[in-house]
TrEMBL record:
This is Family 39 glycoside hydrolase. It comes from Mycena rosella (Pink bonnet). The keyword Signal applies. GO terms for molecular function: hydrolase activity, hydrolyzing O-glycosyl compounds. InterPro entries: GH, GH39_cat, Glycosyl_Hydrolase_39. Residues 1-21 form the signal peptide. Keywords: Glycosidase, Hydrolase, Signal. Residues 100-439 form the Glycosyl hydrolases family 39 N-terminal catalytic domain. The keyword Signal applies. Belongs to the glycosyl hydrolase 39 family.
């Protein structure tokens, strides 16, 4: 007999007991739909574009392209950066990449060569991923101050000066605009109008900090010329920006949006500049806490830092009535600010705190978007992989030597949450305002829930996490919930590979079930299932 989840499983009631005698109730109403659940967790990126064409990069792209029914996108720096020396067409180092897309002959005439960018985009598309195209960085032949240009980075947060010649304004704004036009035109000819229409084109990266060694007004010029180039090649292309660091970043985001509405366009002399989406970046700020008499040394995350960035940016976007309907992307959305940096303050990347942080943070960002009536379309995780690096090398990556890290499985969970969002409440879930102000510190962990139901009404998915900013042992949550036909996926210590299991890690690293699927007996539309949820564990319950 078929029983509709939507009609039979009306309410989830649950009980969670901690060893400190804390009681938590979870309730989910399968008949109370809050609206569409935005599939935000399908965007990724990296500094190093060329790794996409390497064996491990292609393998990981295949996983990303199969996360769920919604399209996955990839954003990367250095798509227009010049190889230095020009023969260095296989760059293999941190925070660097190059394509030789633009050089000049002895007389200063442009030479366009999109062979390497084609290889990168082909690798995406062959694995079901589409480009979120970043127009940057400045080719050496166009840079106003080209030398020094390339650099070496050793993984230290401030070890080397990486902001070299590629971060400068162009010697010719016309040549910059023409480069973008020729590139977009080439993409249309190679992939077809319909395909390129489905991409996003954004201009540069974090122009409010050292990634752009020009002025704010010069960035507006950079944007105007780049967008004009894309739209000359494909008038129906989707263009946007500005990918500022730090949410609203003071007045930066607002002044950019004002430019797109009322500023003078430096290419056309008309008022304003085309914009089809708005993007900014949000980062947490973890720290390492030294040992005291009462607390051992440990890492402490800071979700509030990233959420405050998001809150500030949403507030600015909401204030622009003519633009606040546009898709909004958190173009980099991470627990810290440097994927290729290694230090004790970022020692969360190989373990379970990273996926539980992501589950809790992305849910709060969806809530903030609802509060501000902002069209949040994507939260982009700045993490990919590095070929020829040691296993579990502490960089912020999704996989290591084709072994999935725990963080990749949270995106598989999000991919199973489709359709519409359901009303879901947990008395153990910290309020949005409290997390925004204080993060998740103190004595109590954040035991939260996000619920969805399929458009057909026959599949219910509940993501339940047990998160705390402190990377310290805490009591498990003993959960009593409900069901139907239940498949229970789990990310926790016992469902995650250990360092000693490297030989078998390719299998063990995949998202695992807590136990084989089971059928639960219904009693007046309800059934019970009990399980423990350790600290920093995440469960996904799929009921059909």
């Amino acid at each position: 007999m078929h029983i509709s989840v939507k009609t039979a499983l009306l309410v989830l009631t649950g009980l969670i007991r901690h060893s400190v005698a804390r009681q938590v109730n979870i309730s989910v109403s399968a008949s109370t739909i809050l609206g569409d659940l935005p599939p935000v967790a399908r965007f990724f990126g990296a500094d190093e574009p060329n790794y996409a064409t390497y064996p491990d990069g292609r393998a990981l792209l295949s996983h990303l392209g199969n996360l769920g029914p919604h399209q996955t996108y990839f954003r990367t720096h250095n798509l227009l950066t010049t190889c230095d020396p020009p023969s260095d067409t296989t760059p293999h180092r941190l925070k660097w990449g190059c394509t030789n897309a633009y050089t000049e002959d002895a007389d200063g005439r442009p030479i366009y060569n999109f062979t390497i960018t084609d290889m990168i985009f082909d690798a995406y598309r062959e694995n079901g991923v589409k480009p979120y195209v970043q127009t940057g960085f400045m080719p050496k032949a166009l840079s106003t101050h080209p030398d020094p240009y390339s650099f070496e980075f050793d993984g230290g947060s401030s070890a080397n000066n990486i902001f070299t010649g590629w971060s400068n304004p162009p010697t010719s704004w016309h040549k910059w605009g023409e480069l973008i036009y020729q590139w977009a035109k080439h993409c249309v000819e190679r992939y077809g109008e319909a395909e390129v229409e489905s991409w996003y084109w954004e201009v540069w990266n974090e122009p409010n900090i050292a990634y752009w060694n020009g002025t704010e007004e010069q960035y507006f010029m950079l944007y105007d010329y780049a967008v004009d180039g894309v739209l000359r090649a494909l008038p129906t292309a989707t263009v946007g920006g500005p990918e500022v660091a730090g949410g609203a970043s003071g007045d930066w985001l607002g002044l950019f949006l004002e430019h797109t509405l009322t500023g003078k366009n430096t290419v056309t002399n008309a008022t304003g500049a085309p914009i089809n989406f708005i993007s900014f970046h949000a980062k947490g700020s973890p720290i390492f806490i030294n040992a005291t008499d009462s607390v051992p040394a440990h890492l402490q995350m800071n979700m509030a830092s990233a959420l405050q960035n998001v809150n500030d940016a949403f507030s600015v976007i909401h204030s622009f009535e003519a633009l606040n309907h546009l898709p909004v992307f958190i173009g980099e959305d991470d627990p810290d600010s440097c994927a290729a940096c290694v230090s004790p303050s970022v020692d969360y990347r190989n373990g379970l705190i990273y996926p539980s942080y992501t589950a809790a943070a992305f849910t709060r960002e969806i809530d903030l978007a609802t509060n501000y009536s902002v069209n949040l379309t994507g939260a982009l995780t700045w993490a990919f992989e590095y070929d020829d690096h040691p296993y579990f090398d502490d960089f912020r990556v999704l996989s290591t030597n084709q072994i999935d890290k725990p963080i990749l499985n949270i995106f598989r969970m999000f991919g199973m949450m489709q359709g519409q969002r359901l009303e879901a409440n947990s008395t153990g879930q910290a309020s949005l305002d409290d997390v925004l102000s204080n993060s998740v510190k103190g004595n109590l962990s954040d035991v939260g829930v996000l619920a969805s139901i399929s458009t057909e009404g026959d599949k219910l998915a509940l993501m339940i996490w047990n998160y705390h900013d402190d990377a310290l042992p805490r009591p498990d949550a003993e959960i009593s919930a409900f069901g139907g036909r239940l498949t229970h996926y789990r990310i926790d210590k016992s469902h995650n590979p250990t360092q000693e299991q490297i030989v078998d890690l390719k299998v063990d690293g995949m998202l695992q079930m807590l136990h084989p699927p089971s059928t639960l007996k219904l009693d007046n539309g309800k059934a019970d299932v009990q399980f423990e949820l350790p600290i920093h564990a995440v469960s996904l319950l799929v009921i059909e």
